Structure formats: C-alpha cells, structure tokens
Automatic annotation (TrEMBL):
UniProt keyword Zinc, yes or no: yes
Source domain of life: Eukaryota
Keywords attached to this entry: Metal-binding, Oxidoreductase, Zinc
Cofactor(s) essential for the protein: Zn(2+)
Protein name (database record): Extradiol ring-cleavage dioxygenase class III enzyme subunit B domain-containing protein
Entries under PANTHER family matching the protein: 4,5-DOPA DIOXYGENASE EXTRADIOL-LIKE PROTEIN (PTHR30096), EXTRADIOL RING-CLEAVAGE DIOXYGENASE CLASS III ENZYME SUBUNIT B DOMAIN-CONTAINING PROTEIN (PTHR30096:SF21)
Pfam families: LigB
Domain Extradiol ring-cleavage dioxygenase class III enzyme subunit B: from-to ranges: 14-270
Length: 275
C-alpha cells in the first residue's frame, strides 16, 4: 500500500500478540521474545506492504490513527523505572500515511463517523517492542490505531470488520495487548495465579472453538474477567484482530508462556476462511 513498486499480495491472517512487559525488548529469558524473533521464519513468512497495529497503550475517546507524513515514526518510551538501556532503543519505521487515510475511510464507510488523525504521535511500546523483534530492519511502513476503553468488545470487533478489506491490500493487522493484564497482581514467582489461569484457559478454548460472540461479551461470559482485566485496554486489540480476520475465521494459539505470576503471553493467529 505504501510502497508503490511492491506487488500487492493479499494477507490471509491477522494476529493478536501478548506483549507483556516492556522487558520483552531486552530480556532473553522471556520465551515470548524468542517467539517474536522467529515470527518471520516460523509464523508469517510473507512480507506485508505495511502494518497496522492496534495497541492497548493508546486510548482515545474516538478512533484515531497516527498519520506520519514526514518520514519516520518516533519511538515513545511510555514506561517508567526500567533499565536505562531500554530508553536508548529506537524503532524508526516509516510512517504509513496512505494506510492511515485508508483506515479512516473504511471506518467512516462502516458508520464510525468520528475518526481522527494524529500527525505527531509515534509508536508506543505496545507497537514498537513486538515489531522490533518481528521486523528488526524497520523497513515496513507502520500505522497505529487507538482503542476506546469506554466502549465494549463488540464495538472493537466491528472496527476490525470494517478494516478487513485491508488484508486484500497487503496490510498486516496486528492487535497488541495481553491475554491477562493486572499489573497490581504481578509477583516475582514462577507459579501462576489460579484466576489468571482460569481466564487464560477460557479465552483459549473460546477462541479455538470459534466462540467469538462469547469473547465479545467476555465480561459476562469469562471466569475472573474483572481481575484478569481491571481495564479492557489490553484485550480490545484482540477483538479488532478477530473482526478483521473475517467471518468464520479460524483461531490458532501460536505461543504460550507466563511471567510474573499473572502475565500470560498467549498469542493467536486468525486465518480467514474461503467464502
């Protein structure tokens, strides 16, 4: 889409990546780090024309895309108290203004009347940390889309549905959040909290069995939903990824690991099915 000389190859998959802690950027002891570093070889070998990331770290009242027209995305260090070397990391992927305009167009066509552009905001760590591992050359244009925490799962699923045509245009759609996300419950221990395990297991079973309506209504359907996600910000990127995959999309768990007692790194692929 952004690279005029590149042939457009449709993308059949969307992804949800649990990005967990910002330590993912430097900590080789985290299995999820190695999973993401092997992403291009083992999970998704196609090189997309551009990448749309929906990150749990960008919350706005109405859908907003970053539309960087003058070169490279800035690297946003939206975390505190971590090792100094993490604040030296940079992921300067090109902006994707054409993709940003297309996202805005598709959302408006689907009834999302208020869609905004941000011409200054770069990539937060929910976007650049996984992308730095997945596509370290930073040579693919990237656009980011915000989440609306005052809305529900079905709303974000419908955002994804509106964006489904992007796959035919060679765009890789990545939701970046966390299968479980309660930062107050983190502990430096290897065992996993029962409530985190219960929610994570329910989520996996619901996804692989295609119970997307239940996932849209996870607050009333899932065990331990409120403690697993005190705020919905890190789950809504999942709903967008499901919606964008298309009707009857098939879900596959592509990585699973834990850290800090409650933090699931479960990541999923959603593959579009032939009509």
């Amino acid at each position: 889409m952004e690279m005029g000389s590149q042939m457009t190859v449709p993308v059949k998959e969307t992804f949800f990546i649990s990005h967990g802690s910002p330590m993912l950027s430097i900590d080789d002891s985290l299995p999820a780090r190695h999973f993401l570093k092997c992403f291009r070889k083992r999970v998704f070998t196609q090189k997309p024309n551009s990448i749309l990331v929906i990150s749990g770290h960008w919350e706005t009242s109405e859908p907003t895309v970053n539309c960087i027209t003058d070169g490279l995305n800035d690297t946003i260090y939206d975390f505190y108290g971590f090792p100094q070397q993490m604040y030296q990391l940079k992921y300067q992927a090109p902006g994707a203004p054409k993709l940003a305009k297309r996202v805005k167009e598709l959302l408006k066509l689907s009834g999302f009347n208020q869609v905004h552009e941000d011409n200054k905001r770069g990539l937060d760590h929910g976007a650049w940390v996984p992308l730095m591992l997945m596509y370290p050359e930073a040579d693919i244009p990237v656009c980011q889309l915000s989440v609306q925490t005052k809305k529900d799962g079905a709303y974000h699923f419908n955002i994804g549905k509106a964006l489904a045509p992007l796959k035919e245009e060679g765009v890789l759609i990545v939701g970046s959040g966390s299968a479980t996300h309660n930062l107050r419950a983190l502990r430096d221990t290897a065992d996993v909290a029962s409530w985190a395990m219960d929610f994570d297991t329910w989520l996996k079973e619901s996804l692989v069995n295609g119970k997307y309506e239940d996932v849209n209504n996870y607050m009333s359907k899932a065990p331990c939903a409120k403690i697993a996600h005190p705020s919905p910000d890190h789950l809504y990127p999942l709903h967008v990824a499901i919606g964008a995959a298309g009707e009857n999309a098939k879900a596959e768990l592509i990585h699973h690991s834990w850290s800090k007692h409650t933090l699931s790194y479960a990541s999923y692929k959603f593959e579009s099915q032939p009509k």
